[in-house]
Amino acid sequence: MSISQISLSRAGSGDTERYEYECPCGEGKIIEEHDNIPGFRDHSVFFRCDKCNEKYKFDLSKGVRGWELVEK
Ligand SMILES: [Zn+2]
């Protein structure tokens, strides 16, 4: 799996990190987002791919930055 795009944007007083990875089937993306806004921290990782969303899930036992894909 390769990182196809990394962007780091600064909006207002907080930072938003957004990473895009190729999904396993290659037709979609995996999106990892970290919103580091004071008073509002949101970390999420999700598929933007229906196929992989059906087939895989995220193992977040090592934390949202250390996610691993596991087959359902
Ligand atoms: Zn896919």
From TrEMBL:
The lineage of its organism: Bacteria, Bacillati, Bacillota, Clostridia, Eubacteriales. This is TRASH domain-containing protein. SUPFAM superfamilies: CSL zinc finger (SSF144217). It comes from the Bacteria. InterPro entries: DPH_MB_sf.
